[in-house]
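FW: tagging you since you asked about this chain on Friday. Here's the raw sequence from the shared folder, copied in full. Didn't touch anything.
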Amino acid sequence: MQERPSTTEYPAYFQDYMKLVPEGNIVALFKEQERQTSNLLQGLTDEQARFAYDTEKWTIKEVIGHLTDTERIMSYRLLTIARGDVTPLPGFHEDSYVLQAKFTEMTVASLLAQYKAVRASTIALLESLHDQDWVRQGMANGHVTSVRSLAYIMLGHERHHHNILHDRYFASATYPLNRM
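HL: got it, structure written out here
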């Protein structure tokens, strides 16, 4: 599946994520992004991963957990729609998920292990899809959404958080620099 989704296949509020996804084979993009995310985060100490660039902002650990939870949810949506299930799928409140999960109590290694497991599962799901599955549409969070748009949303969402990690966390004057 190489064709990008049209703007009628996803809610307008995902347009910024869509713009962040480069051209290329979607599965290859998922694999490359997993490598980039792992490289970006695997050497963090617990002190660094507990860092938040401002009050009321997530810690890096919470960002990792949020990426994983969001991919779990988006992958479930993708699976449901790809299989032709027309059940309207609910939205989710990301802040509630992060608060409930207590990601700050987990190690960076365990958070990354979960991330990698979820990403491997997403890639396996994408590799199993047939051409007609990619263009199927369903309802998620009250909006028409296609299978291919969900794949692009996942990639764009993670790239969005890479940018935030670089620009607001790692570039902060108060970020603990004792990287391993």
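FW: The radius of gyration is 17 Å.
HL: agreed, and The mean pLDDT is 96.
FW: great, closing this out.
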